[in-house]
Design brief:
5 copies of one chain form a homopentamer.
Chain A (H helix, E strand, L loop, with lengths): L1 E8 L2 E2 L6 H7 L5 E8 L3 H11 L3 H9 L5 E5 L2 E12 L4 E11 L3 E8 L5 H8 L2 H4 L3 H35 L7 H18 L3 H8 L11 H64 L7 H4 L3 H22 L4
Parallel strand pairs in A: 3-7
Antiparallel strand pairs in A: 1-2, 1-3, 4-5, 5-6, 6-7
Helix pairs in contact in A: 6-7, 6-9, 7-9, 8-9, 9-11
Chain lengths: 323, 323, 323, 323, 323
């Protein structure tokens, strides 16, 4: 599905609706470029673009079927970039990944969205309000998209960080819940998220160094800024991975400590109940000559003895921290 | 065993049966190349090939005895590539690895299959239906084989992923089964699979960069595509390895938690049975003056007391989550 | 907020108050440079500086909003350095990180502090007492700041080391406390601290090699000294991370060992109480012909028997280390 | 001890016994080289060689005292190579390492064996049967030795693999043995073996690339083959290390699971025995009015009740998998 | 404190006492160099040296305050090397580290010892007995010192290895001691020792490659020998670190296994004592019609029954390995 198609001239969008054929004609004129946005295009929808822009069949296949690793590839006359977008979904504590593919030439940008990747309409609007940046050509569009995608990693990372904080609190609280499944699932999300972002660091660094053509030299520093945020995101994810590994270990110790506490509490009660049973057993013996049995205070005395011993035991266990 | 032997001219297969001697003669003619396919050849079967194509004795030894690591070697006048094929066998949850060895010169391709490596017949058929690609010479054959082998890694990886999903579900279910052996065996498969794929990344990257001769320049981008899939496979295997290591850790915690739950449940029942035993012991004492013993409601009262205490304990333990 | 603004000429500070406009004029004169210090400036406060020194908008954004990774960036005509300052807060055992950003040109230094970063006034005073160093220009200022910041890492590291020593002592003491939460929190601090220091090693090494302009050649060796301390700090943090990981493991073993000790102690007491109960049970049987029951010493004998067996058990358990 | 000393001319061994002085004279003649083999030589035995071949004193020290890491060093006019040989000793499951040191010049090879390193006599015999290879000079001898040493790693690795398979079987069997010591000792062997082989990969790779003199160019491919086997050995050892680490983890879970199983079985029996004790306690109470006590079927009924409850409990525990 | 000051000429020490001023004068003469040895010098003691040899203030600061990482730094006209010496202290199982700092110019060596670093007097004596080596100038002194320091690592490493062997034996013995603290402390020593040696590998490798001036070319091979020993020490420490990590893991399993053994032994005794208690309970019931109670052999029969059942249980538990 073609979402938007526009011609930009000197940093300004040409008014009115523009169809593809029109865009193909005008883009060659100096100072102009086209930006065509698609959403999950079919092979047929993509065919005209493929022929006009001489897109490489392998890149076209990637653009239609998605499920690629983040990457930047150089083809004759164009760059091809694959990005992963990320969105944190709170109730399930899951990072939803989308995919964004960008073809970039001297006078065109083609953007293809897949899955949960959020609309590029706001990026386009922001850019159109900044003609100075837009005048730098398709590279400015690539920067704006990358900037937005990488900035959107931050709320997702913060969502995970909140979860990790909660897990930590749970871990060291007295609640005695078992956060192991949650930790494991968070580890899984962090691993998946990292895989979606880390491979991008190297190509963006090369963009910042101006290793590729098609991009206006003034934008290089901007890509360095994007890369900075990207590296920060990767480092945060690495730190989370380490923290989660540590919390899994800490949880093992907590489980062991609680087992110990329970065992001691249980044992204390067993001891408290075992003593009257033993005393009762003694006074249940059938010896002829057991003087206590005939005493008037024998029975209440025995009960009292049980009570006293149980009470002493109770307080001693209490003081020792077993109860 | 020679499986197939064919001469290709301008991207088309010469009709009719072709014997080796015939193939040796014609391959030198411009625009032609031969593709000879073998299955577990003996030294004798391989001898004529060895002499005709001046194959290096070390490469020949590898081709006959197999059990090599994946690798790409440059010999004078040819490339020698060793690949591992993978097939997931469901009932046993095992990755069956086969071996595929390719000799590649300017006018010949020799493919040798060992073990479970699947037949190359479909690859050949697909290629023969694409004369444009085939016209690029032996490099196109190598690409087609690599593409197929690496694509076939994906179902094997998905088989493992399904197993891991099952293990996860088992791990956090209430089933109280012990998935540790399954996790261990999966780790073993993942390690073995990774060892069969990862060493290939570097040589395929060099193929994509056009570092080797014998390969038509138009095919370089295709090798980059193969390498992309290869890196994706390797990354997936790495992620699985991390997940399995995490699940082994999580399992430890689960075992500890279950031990704790069982101990608490058992202890609760011990407490419930200990109380009537203690009361019975008390009324089994032989004191002369135990007024309750003479009461008419003494006995039913004692039973009632036992019942009441047991019931109270039962509900308290229930509420505390011990039962 | 502008904290201080001074003109330095031949290593000496110009007397009297200097306003910004004044500083802008004079800095171009040979042998002079300005050092402007700010604390959490607003965009408005920073505007005049941005225009005068032609600061890059991205660096300005970083300087105003902070929360950057440590880094060194080269812009046209200047260097931009981001540092993390660290302070150990004892009662909470936390490392408080501040941020310090430095713009460095041939004739100016702009320093921006954020958060807990300690005041640079003492650095300035020390420098002003060393005109020989100061005469080397803005690079000397950068060195003095880096030197101070990195030296201040040491007390923070020592604070953590003291905590780790305490944790170790706790771990192997008989106190039976559970240091797992403390270990985990220390790991978290160490990870965070390392993230704030390690990325600085590489750019400071490049400063020491004289890879960047704007810095007097005589200062290069000084940066090597700073880097030495930085690497030492990083190595110490790495060693702490390894030690904490080891102590988490050791703690697991300690928990297991204590569980075992408790179980044995409890079991010993259960055994000691079970024996009199069993003996009492035997003499509570109602057989007609039980000669002991009629003996005069039957009852005291039975009690004595209980006592003797319990005492024997007690000493045997004692000797076996169970009690 | 000098084990063998021979002159080779055009790939053939000169007949008859050759003494050292003789060998020293003839080696300078074109197409000839000498191969002197020693076993744990003393300083005195080595002295004549040291002077004749101008061996570097540090290399001589290494050759006499052994206990070196595997390495390849270039001295003026010669290469010096240290190898570790490996032999698997079954009953103790230990890898016995020997040491082999080779001096290699344009017209001489000196081999020194230490400890368990197996005799080089078979290598010499095989080589003497292959004059074509031998004609390539001392490099061919080095290749033949390396080839044999590295090939001999394989049975040692297979011995360890068999042990690991046994450990795995033991681990997941019902035998309830504790393989932890065996796993630990295997880890130790694998670590030691790896340390003896891995450092060799890099110098052999450089031999294969023809980076060193003294070696006939036709042999380079042969060293690549040796390196292939060496890398395979290293990868196998790495995989074993990972598997053993995994099996240690799996063992922990197994220990926990068995602890749980035992605790449940024990608890089930405790429950079964506690019920008759409680019932007996009830009918042992001394209440005046306990009608059951006077019933004729009171006693057999009580026994029956105990039996029925125990039987029910037994089957319920059986069904729940506790017994 | 100045420990020794000597002038060497053509590999021989000038007789008689030499004071600093004297040494300063003569060192410039061809073929001579001075070696000044200090122990924990004060700033004042060092001042004359600093001025005479134009030592860099940063290096001087390091030399006086010590506590540096091992390193090699190039200053104008000299090298500055920091070494850590190691000594194993048996009763406490601790590695005592000292520090040794060397300034090396074309005609001087200054050595500064700190803390536990052992005296260099024996190194000096050995060197003075080898004029051939000493004639090579200050580089020979550096080599002799490095050689001694690195050789002295070996007994320290062996001390740790003995400890590790003891820990292993303890771990798998039946002694049931808890070696976890010892393992942890050994880990700590190994980590600290490694940190004191590993950073030296790279600079010594560069010394061996002759990357620095001031050193006679004939000594390069000698530094390669030192580096070999250094790498061996580092590899041994790495192996120890891995072994200790493994033994911590193995210990966890041992703790679990012993917990299980104890629990089974305890449970067996509980079962053995529970049976007579239950039987006694049954014959303690007050039913009117319990024929056994009137039998003459009732009581001895009951006791016999208890004994028989306990004996059977005892042997069954024995056979099952629970007792």
């Amino acid at each position: 599905m073609i979402v938007d198609c526009a011609i930009y001239e000197d940093g300004r969008r040409r008014d009115g609706h523009v169809d593809l054929a029109h865009a193909y004609d005008e883009r060659h004129e100096s100072g102009k470029f086209v930006w065509i946005g698609l959403y999950q295009p079919t092979e047929e929808e993509f065919d005209s673009l493929r022929r006009e822009f001489k897109l490489h069949p392998l890149a076209v296949e990637d653009a239609i079927h998605a499920h690629q690793r983040p990457k930047l590839e150089v083809y004759e006359g164009m760059l091809f970039i694959v990005l992963k977008t990320a969105r944190y979904v709170d109730p399930t504590e899951v990072i939803e990944l989308g995919e964004l593919l960008v073809f970039l030439g001297d006078d065109f940008v083609i953007t293809v969205r897949h899955g949960e990747a959020s609309s590029l309409a706001p990026v386009r609007e922001d850019l159109e309000r900044d003609p100075k940046h837009l005048r730098r050509g398709p590279g400015a569009v690539l920067h704006a998209i990358l900037d937005r995608v990488v900035d959107d990693y931050q709320p997702a990372i913060e969502g995970l960080e909140t979860d990790i904080d909660e897990v930590e609190e749970e871990l060291f609280s007295d609640a005695r819940t078992n956060p192991v499944e949650r930790i494991y699932r968070l580890q899984r999300e962090v691993l998946g998220f990292r895989k979606a972002t880390a491979p991008l660091v190297e190509p963006v660094a090369r963009l910042a160094e101006g290793k590729y053509g098609h991009i206006h030299p003034e934008i290089h520093d901007y890509f360095r800024d994007v890369n900075d945020h990207l590296i920060r995101a990767r480092d945060q994810l690495d730190a989370m991975r380490d923290l989660l590994a540590g919390s899994l270990q800490a949880n093992l110790a907590q489980v062991g400590v609680r087992q110990n506490e329970d065992m001691r509490r249980i044992s204390a009660w067993v001891a408290i109940i075992a003593v009257p049973t033993a005393i009762a057993g003694i006074y249940g013996m059938n010896f002829k000559h057991m003087p206590e049995l005939k005493w008037g205070i024998g029975y209440p005395g025995a009960l009292m003895l049980m009570l006293v011993i149980c009470t002493i035991l109770y307080y001693r266990f209490k003081r020792a921290g077993w109860l």
